[in-house]
Write a structure and sequence with these properties.
By secondary structure, the protein is an alpha/beta fold. About 35% of the residues lie in helices and about 35% in strands. It has two domains: about 30 residues; about 100 residues, Beta Barrel (OB fold (Dihydrolipoamide Acetyltransferase, E2P)), CATH 2.40.50. α2 packs across α3.
Amino acid sequence: MQKMTKLIYAIAVLAVTALGGYYYVFVYSKTHHRNVQSEKGIAIMADSLSAQFQANETNANSLYLNKALTVTGTILSIDKNQEGKITILLGRADSFSNVSVTLISTTPITQNIGETITIKGVCTGALSDVIITEGVVQ
């Protein structure tokens, strides 16, 4: 009798865990996204942002990491990533580090290489370039 009770409890715990995982993956995560466009973004030039990350990454992370930024800069390149989303590189051609922005939309942008653009998104840190995700052209 005691083995049967333990088995029932174990099955109940597994069922609750599985239901919780299902809810989080398929329901909660789809309806509870951060709406960056409704947040007030920190306005900054692309050159200044990349220079701050190059000078002191720890300090720049404390100022910009996971925060909404409104970045203005010159378009160096326009590409698509593996998901088909548009990626834009902002900055200066002679700079070692620039700002890489991934847009939310897959709709082509109207600006061309060499033009100035302002994009709002979330800073996720720096690799060789500063990374901005969830970008929307302003």
